[in-house]
Design a protein that fits this description.
single chain; 100 residues; mainly alpha; 3 helices; elongated
Length: 100
């Protein structure tokens, strides 16, 4: 004999599984829509379309879970420090150029 509590638990599990599948279907549909929009304006070999769909799907999935993607490389420092002295010199040079 199945109790009401056991039935509710099983129904909750089925609801969770159905919600997960629906969510995956929605994400896949969104990924396909994004790729279709991209392909309509940009040339892309047909063989690369599944890979692009997978990449977009993975990006959308990571947004849902809140897990950020790993950065490919660390930020690089600026090649040059721009100090007020630099800007003063640049203004002076620009003024000379403008007067010519």
């Amino acid at each position: 004999m199945v109790t009401a509590k056991a039935r509710t638990s099983a129904e909750d599990q089925m609801t969770d599984i159905t919600a997960e599948k629906t969510n995956r279907d929605d994400l896949l549909r969104m990924a396909v829509d994004v790729v279709a929009a991209y392909v309509s304006k940009n040339p892309l070999p047909a063989g690369q379309i599944p890979e692009v769909i997978h990449t977009v799907y993975a990006s959308l999935s990571s947004l849902e879970t809140g897990i950020p993607e790993a950065k490919s490389e660390a930020p690089k420092p600026a090649a040059r420090d721009y100090t007020p002295r630099y800007f003063d010199a640049a203004r002076k040079e620009l003024g000379k150029w403008a007067r010519r």
